Amino acid sequence: MHLKVYLSGEIHTDWREEITQSCTDKEITFMSPITIHESSDDCGVAILGDEPNKFWHDHKGAKINAIRTRKGIEDADIVVVCFGEKYKQWNAAFDAGYAAALGKSLIILHQAAHQHPLKEIDAAALAVAETPQQIVQILNYVLDGTLP
Predict the structure, then answer these.
(1) Is 42 a domain residue?
(2) I want to staple 106 with a disulfide (CB 3.0 to 4.6 A). Which of 42, 56, 81, 125 is the partner?
(3) Average pLDDT in the 115-140 region?
């Protein structure tokens, strides 16, 4: 079996690397949004031209980023959405909702302190993990039935 896994969510920690490096021997293709914050924020004006108004600057970037995000989520077998500790990730919540609406297998990753604020998103998920290692263990089990 080969899995396509889209890794969505916060970009301020190395959770993606923890997962991808732990799964190098598995048949998994990982996809993700652009995780370089400046590139993600400025792609619209870098490609389509400057905007004097910050709203339109962000609007252009969000739309271009949405092309990659939609394609990644639509193509994925599993969507993992990570909510970090420091920032409110409205984009991550949107990605989780989009994945749920498409009927994707959804795994949510967040710390225990966010159980209450994310309860609706957790309810849409097939699994809710607190560590990247638990995500790796879920993927291992799905692929070949191995337990930790």
Answers:
(1) no
(2) 125
(3) 97
pLDDT tens-digit readout, 1-43 = 899 999 999 988 999 999 999 999 899 999 999 999 899 999 9
Flag whether 8 is in a domain: yes
Q: Over the stretch 42-79, which tens digit does the pLDDT of each residue have? A: 999 999 999 999 999 999 999 999 999 999 999 999 99
The domain that contains 140 carries what CATH number?
Answer: 3.40.50.2300
Which residues neighbour 6 within 8 Å (Cβ) at sequence distance 6 or greater?
Answer: 30, 31, 32, 72, 73, 75, 76, 78, 79, 80, 99
Question: Checking DSSP bridges between strand 127-129 and strand 28-31, what pairing results, if any?
Answer: unpaired
* Residue 77 covered by a domain: yes
Quote the percentage of the chain above a pLDDT of 70: 99
CA pair distance 72, 47, nearest whole angstrom: 21
Residue 49 lies in a domain: no
pTM of the model: 0.95
Structure tokens at 62: 């969000």
The total number of structural domains in the chain stands at 1
